[in-house]
Amino acid sequence: MSPNHDPFVTSFCSRREFLKTGAAVAGVALAGGPQAAGETPAPDSKGLVTQLSEHVFVYHGPINVGIIRDGDRALLIDCGDGRVAQALPGLGIKSVAQMVFTHHHRDQACGARDFADAGAKVGVPAGERALFADPASYWNNDGNLWRVYASFRPHHLTLTEPLPVDEVYVDGHEFRFGSAAIRVFDTAGHTNGAVSYAVEADGRRVVFCGDCIYDEGRVWDVHSLQQGFSQGERKIGGYHGFMGDRWRLVESLDRIRACQPQTLVPSHGHLMSDPVRAIETLAERFESCYENYVAISALRHYFPELFTGYAGRPGQMPIRPGIDPPGCLRHFGTTWMLVSQTGAALVMDVGSNNTVAQLKKMLEREEIQRVEALWVTHYHFDHTDGIPLFQQEFDVPCITDRRLADVLTNPRAWRLPCLAPEAVRVDRPLEDGQSWEWHEFKLTSYFFPGQTLYHAALLAEGEGLRMLFVGDSHTMSGIDDYCAQNRNFLGRDVGFQYCVSLVEKLQPTHIFNCHVNPAFTFTDEEIRFMRQTLDERERRFGALVPWEHANYGLDESWVRCFPYTQQARAGQRVTVDVVFTNHAATAQGSACRAILPSVWGGAATDWQGAELPAKREQGVPLTFEIPDNATAGRYVVPIDVKHGPHDLPQFTEAVVDVS
Question: What's this model's pTM, rounded to 2 decimal places?
């Protein structure tokens, strides 16, 4: 594919062409009287315009943009990447007087600055004003990049450059534009501050609802719902909150339904002429998906009070009883330690400096004779924070799976939950299934993409035991997949299906979780049940999102930049690999380009493309130059993405710290 060739050129219809063909193509209402619009295939009709009434239109670009016309001027509801400007002359519109936004994500507003510079006033949800007006505060706060645990909001799709804000809107705010009366109401869920706009014009009521819903029974993605929640007096944080904001989103959808709109317009998705059915179907699918999730969730072990409503339902896997650990093991904090008959110790994970102090006391008391090796199960900081001190105190090899080693040794190149930016030295990165002898034990390293995609398991065989150390991937109640951003893939031969198959193959006598004192095992029937539940989960979540596979809606990092952050100097050429994970069952054409900061000239690089094989990951390199006069500071470089039929402006980003 030629670097300069954009294989995904979108179409644009003039108003005359629209009036000739719009009704046939998109089910539009023609000028001459308001009629109910049909369900419009917006994602497959880029550049088309749907007319909902004399003064209300929808432009179908990468997102749906609402257009309220008043003579030759317009109000836009969201604006996407700005391509809506191409459609305005055909509608007799000469200027954009006002823009209002449903929520703060970059794809909603990345083209807004040109309209604002030309005089358009900007209105945003009150709760998200700072993300529009001062995104640098978000990006310059390292707490939003590293050790992310308590909350995954604001989201990394925050704007990279500021947008001037003229008005902020709270629930119940009302205003007029031309003949249209517009009311704002809170519809949090997709983001914390999201709002919707009910537009009354020409005898019709239309609600522009952002990303509350995609179309009947579907949402744009699932990972954006990662949020802490509470039931009764028990509360959990964002890391454990898989689909945690779906309750609030359903409440928001109920508010939309109560408005009784004739048409519901999402940011991503199809226009809905039967909003009640669309919303009810989505609420039912949410419950069906979550019930499937709870059936084998480790959260039932950690937080049983949150799931009492599911306890008596059929289809919930019974929680296994615990098994006393054998005498060759010690457990403290998140550390398991295997102790040889010689007194030598193999330490697994070092979550804090207190673990190092405890090891030194054990040596002083001669409970162990020496520390000989360190094994790391995964990168989360509650398993790695003590490793720098450990490696100062104990000159022993650090061993783990090579995939995990890539993250541990270069953490600033990744953006993942609970990842500390401090590098860990790995002396022996191992291949899947690689074995070695350690005193009376045979040890085998396994790739174990369970709780995270970058996770390792260790099988220790000896003394008649087959002990499998799985990090945080299993408990007695099933699987630990409570954070979507960890990249828990669905499908046979990936994710927990891969892990469960490995457990079935290895037949361990004991399974160990770093946070749980007792050991446990799974019966053959429980393994079958987990596999069947995951098969069904793939189907249910596949119906919940509009993508070619459920994993696109679950995997926030299916397009990522590597390295995510890097240091550079003014005048230096920088290369970033845009890494695509093709979750589809067929090859997909993909392309990307970088949008340089405005202080670097604001140009876009040439498109670079590749044909991605099915179910594979592949990087596409982008290279750009930092100007000689660039000042020191942090610069965020957004990346436009095209993948199969999807046009995704500024869908991911790379961070460059110029020294």
Answer: 0.92
